[in-house]
């Protein structure tokens, strides 16, 4: 079965760019849509002949929720389509506030529990398809969304503006600077260039292991640093900067246990695990550089010649992204816009 959420991510292909770089590059951008970036779990809502469910980007099916019933009630007013797919972020809301990401993830993963069902809401971003026809105009998608889902109780539309770069600046100041929203999503008029604008650069990286046995923290059963990598278009893992800051003692202990429990090989004191988890890292700056590359055989890593990668200056651990997987999109080398 098609994973609509994953397909949408690849087709939209957001590039990450910092605020000042976006302003300098798109000073005269045509009127476009700018929306608050909601920090949740990407989920596609599918309605087909009365059947309604969410599918997350990790292919988890979610049914039987009040928000699913709300979608069904709205969509059953229409008889002119048989199948519709809508894209957005699944979040958990309590007392009209979106829960912090770790709590949110836990609620979404346990949505089958009665106590969590009513907490799950959906922030709708885009129309993926109607009756099998892909949406090619974001303006038409927004028109459909605004006409049908405003005023719903568990279906929300992110705060947005349609306008010029000045309108973008005003939204960014209000939402990111003053209210602490993670960033702004820009859907430019040409339909091909789409961006996530943040105050600092963050990266989703494959976790390959930790190192190394000579460091004192090893004796305290704590990971000294995380070995992380991007994935190139050829499927190889391109090592990036080691991540040794931003980790709490508890997180160091948890990663130590995870790596030691799943160890598959050791190279010069560094312990490697299968490429199965994603971590999010913040960095002040980045640069292109040749780096060690690894080929994963399914059982072990083979070190191959150096290849292009990105080195991160002062990387700091933000969180584990267990809602994402190690694939050629989520941890791709081309996560940033080169400006």
From the structure above, extract its key features.
339 residues, alpha+beta, Dna Ligase, domain 1, D-amino Acid Aminotransferase, Chain A, domain 1, OB fold (Dihydrolipoamide Acetyltransferase, E2P), 3 domains, 8-stranded antiparallel beta sheet, 8 helices, globular
How many beta-strand elements? 21
The name of the CATH superfamily of the largest domain reads: Nucleic acid-binding proteins
Shape: globular
| H/E topology pattern | HEHEEEEHEEHHEEHEEHEEEEEHEEEEE
The CATH topology of the largest domain is given as OB fold (Dihydrolipoamide Acetyltransferase, E2P)
How are the elements arranged and paired?
Elements: H1 4-12, E1 15-18, H2 19-25, E2 32-36, E3 41-48, E4 51-56, E5 61-62, H3 66-75, E6 83-94, E7 97-98, H4 101-109, H5 114-117, E8 120-130, E9 133-134, H6 138-149, E10 155-156, E11 160-163, H7 165-178, E12 183-187, E13 194-198, E14 201-211, E15 225-231, E16 237-239, H8 249-261, E17 265-267, E18 270-283, E19 285-296, E20 301-313, E21 316-320
Parallel strand pairs: 1-13, 8-10
Antiparallel strand pairs: 2-11, 2-12, 3-4, 3-6, 4-5, 6-7, 6-8, 8-9, 12-13, 14-15, 14-18, 15-16, 16-19, 17-18, 18-21, 19-20
Written description of the protein model:
The structure is a single chain. It is built from eight helices and 21 strands. The protein is an alpha+beta fold and about 350 residues long. The protein has three domains: about 60 residues, Dna Ligase, domain 1, CATH 3.30.1490.70; about 120 residues, DNA ligase/mRNA capping enzyme (D-amino Acid Aminotransferase, Chain A, domain 1); about 120 residues, Nucleic acid-binding proteins (OB fold (Dihydrolipoamide Acetyltransferase, E2P), Beta Barrel), CATH 2.40.50.140. Strands 3, 4, 5, 6, 7, 8, 9 and 10 form an eight-stranded mixed sheet that branches. Strands 14, 15, 16, 17, 18, 19, 20 and 21 form an eight-stranded antiparallel sheet that branches.
